[in-house]
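User: For a benchmark we're assembling, each entry needs the component sequences followed by a predicted structure for the full assembly. Here are entry 17's components. Please fill in the structure.
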Amino acid sequence: MENILPEPLTKELGDRLRGVVGDSWVIVDADRLLAYESDGLTAYRRTPRAVVLPRTTDEVSRVLSILSQEGVPVVPRGAGTGLSGGALADGDAVVVGTARMTDMLALDPANRLARVQPGMINVDLTKAAEPFGLYYAPDPSSQSACTLGGNIAENSGGPHCLKYGVTSRYVTGLTVVTYDGKIVEMGGFGRESGGYDLLGVFVGSEGCFGIATEIEVRLLPKPEGVRTLLAIFDRLGDAGSAVTEIMAEGLLPAALEIIDGPTIRAVEASVFAAGFPTDAEAALVVEFDGIEAGLEADVERAVARCREAGAREVRTADSEEERLALWQGRKKAFGAMGQIASDLLVQDATVPRSQLTDVLERISEIGVRHDLTIANVFHAGDGNLHPNLLFDRSDPEEVARVERASTEIMAVCVEAGGTITGEHGVGLDKRRYMSLVHGPDELDAMRRIKAVFDPLGRMNPGKVLPDAPDSAGAAT
Amino acid sequence: MKPQHDTALAAALWAQEDKLKPCVHCGFCLPACPTYTRLGDENDSPRGRLYLMGAVVEGRLSPDSDAFQTHIDRCLGCRACEPVCPSGVEYGVLLEAARESIFRARKTPAMVGMLLAVFSSRRWTSWSMRLARVVRGLGMAGRAARLMPANRFFHPIRFGLAMLDASRERQFPVASPSGFAAPDGSADGSAGDGSSEAGLPDAGSSDDPSSDGAARWREGSRGRVAILRGCVQAGLFARVNDATERVLRANGYEVVEVSGQGCCGALHTHAGDAAEARELARANVQILGSAQVDFIAVNAAGCGAALKEYGHLLEADEEYKQTAADLAASTRDISELLTGDTLQAGDSLRVGAPLPARVTYDAACHLCHAQGLREEPRVLLEAIPELVVLPLQDEEECCGGAGIYGVTHAELGGQIGADKVSAVLATGAEIVATGNPGCMMQIGAGLLLEGSDVIACHPVELLDESYRRAGFYDGP
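Assistant: Structure for entry 17:
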C-alpha cells in the first residue's frame, strides 16, 4: 500500500499543540517522523503528519479538542509493539502517543485494584503489585514492552489467558477521551454496573472509539503453586495432538504453548536460549498453577498424554530460574525471529482446538508450495495460531509470495471454523479479511457503534472495518 | 535519491548494513533505554535510532540532518538495549558506525575536540592530569562547586569541579577500626549477610599469611599479568591501579609493568573519531601485545570493553588484525581475573579481613551490558567478610556519566544522574562501589553536590583494604 506523504502541520496548529504539551513533545520534522512509520509489523510503513506526546488526561483532552476543531484525524499509539499495523497513521493524521503517561495512579491491595495511566508497561504493573502478593494476569508475550493502553485497545491475550481470560475480564473502569476532547468515565470502583456494558464495548476497540487515559484493573493473588513441564516432539502434528488430548482429559492448564522447530532454533541462537533441543520439531510447554494439593496429579496426567502422543522426552522445570528461562524463551520468540530473517509477517488466526493438527499440516504445506519458511509459535490451548512468515523485504518477488501464502493461511483457518485474529487485533493488516468472518449486517452494526463514539470517523481511521460498500474507494 | 556526499559520509554505516537487518522492530528495547523512558520520543529509543540509521543506509536521511545528529548524540552508549534484544542486534557496533558518519559530517564541538586531542597525546594527557591533581590538591574544588549557581552557564565548570573532587582518596567509614572480631561478637569474624550466601569458607582463620593457605596464592602461580594503566585512571585514580596490582599479587598473579601505554581510544570511538581510535589501538597493541603476558588486567569498564573490541576495530588492518584479536582475547576485567571460572570466593578469590561497612553496588554499563560481567564484581564484594552489600534499585541502569555526557547533555544527564544518586541514598549505604572511573566521578559528583558523605569507589579498593587489614601485604 502507498505511503501518503505527510502534509506538514501549520505553524499555528503546531504552536497551539506545543502550548498544551510543551515544545519537546510535538514532533513535526519529517526526519523525526520516520521512527513512527511502523509498529511491530514492519510490512507497513505510513508516515504520520505529526506526533504529540501528552502527559495527563487533561492534556489529551485539550490536544484532541484542538485537532478535532481542525478536523485532523487522530491515531493513538502506545509502545508501538502491535502486530496489526493499528498504530500507523496516514499523512493527514496526527499520532497521539501515551509514552509519557506511565504513572501508577492508585494501588489498592485490599480491593485488589490498580488504577494506572495508559503508557504503563504491562509487566511494571505486576512488579508494583508483587510486594502485596498480587499480579496482573493478562501476559501478552510482549509484556516487557507493551503498554496497558495498547492492551485495552487490542483486548490482549497471552499464554496464561487459556485459564485466566483476556484483558476485558480484568478491566473494571476507564477514563476515556473521545475525538471531540470530551472526558468520559466508564465503570470504576463503587459504581453501579447497571445499564449497557460500555466497558465491554470499549475494550478491544483498537483505538477507534477514543483514548483511554486512566485504566482501572483487577489484580489476582499469586497462585500458591506452579508446575511447568516441557515435552519435546519430533513432529509438530504430534504436539498438536497432545494439546487436544490434554484438554479432552478435562485438565485446565494455566498455559499450553507450542514452539516449532524453526522457532526453537531462532530462540536458541538468541540471548534468551532456554535449552530447547535444536533438533526437535516441536516443544510443548504445559503449565499448571493453583493450590499445591492436586498439582502433581494434574502434571502426571498431562505427562502421560504427552507420551501417548509421541513425545520423545518430557521434563519438568526443577527451579524457578528454569521455569522463567522457558518462559523467556517462549515470550521473546517473536523478536528472536530476527536471528533467522530480516522481515516477518505474523498471522494470528484462531481455530477450534480439535482442528489444530490438521490446520498445522495445511499451513506447512502452504509454506512448502510458496517456498517460504514458516515458523510457528502459538497459544495452542486456545487454538490461537501464530504462523510467522519469514522474508526479506528487499526481494519483491518473495514479498508477493508472502502475500499469497498469508491469504491462503487465513482462508484455511476460516474454513476450519476459525477466525482471523486471536489477540493482535484487525488493525490495518486484517481489515481485508473481515468479510470472511462477518456478514454485512454485523459489519453495519459495528459501524453504527463506532459512530456513537466517533460520529465523524476521524479516530484511527482506516482500521478494523472495511470501507462501507456504498463509500467511494471501497477496495483496500 | 542518494546524494554522493551522503554516501561517503554514511560509509561507516553502509559497512554495517547487515547488522541492521536483524532488528524486527519488536520494541522490546524501549523500556531498557534510559533516554526513552525519560523522554518518550521513539527517536530517543534504540529501535528509533536503529530506524534512523537504516534510513541513512537507505538514502532517505542525511547524516548531516539535525534529527540524525541530535538523537544519535543523545544516546548514552550504555548498551542496555543489547541484553534485552531477542534478535541480537549489535547496537554498540552500529552506534559507533553512526557516530563515525556524524564525525565526518560535521565540525566536532570545541569541547569534545579539545578533550579528544588531549587524550590522543600522552604528553598532553600527563600535563592535564597533573594540572587536575594540583587543583584537586588545593582541596577547594568540591566547596567551589557547591557554591556555584546551578545554572546552564556554570554547569560545566560546577559539575567538572565536583567530578574532580569526587576522584580524591577518602577514608572508608568502617565500623570497627581493624578488628578481626565481628561487631556481633562472633569469634571467627566470618560472614555478614551477603557473604554467607556466597558460600564463604571460614575467613578469619583459614587464610592468614602464616598458614598453609597462603601457599596457594604464591605470586605467579596463576600467570603473568599486565595492568592497563589508562589515562584518567593513571592520572586521577592511581590508587585504584595500585590496589589492583596489590590485589592481583595477593591472588597469585605476577604483575609485569609495561611502560609506554596510551589511552585505549574508547573516548574517540564513542565520539566517532574511529581513525584516531585505531591509531591509539595500534600503539597499544604494539606495546601490550609484546609484553609476553597471559592476561591484560583492566579496572576501568569502558577501557576493558574497548580493548575487548580491538579485534573488531582493527579487522580491516591486515598488519594488526591478528595481534589485535589476540590482545582482545587476553583482556580481562579485574573482577573476572579475581573470581575466575568458579565464581567462588575462597576457591579462586582470596578472602581477607572483615570490613564492617555497608556498600551498594552500581553496575557500570560497560561491565554488565558491554562485557556481560554481572556476577563477578558482586562475588568480589560479597567475599569481603562483614561487608554488607545492599541492593541498589535499577543497579544496571546508566548513571548518566557516559564519558562527558553530563557536560554535553547537562539537563538529561543531570536527570539520569540524579535518579542514580537518589537510588544510592535510598539504600542507606556509606559506600557505592562501581567498576569504572567515569561512573565513580559521575556518581561521586552527584553525591557531593547533594551534600552527601557517601563515598564512590572501585570494588577492588575495598578488597585491597580488606587484604591490608588481613596483613597480606606485611611480607618479609
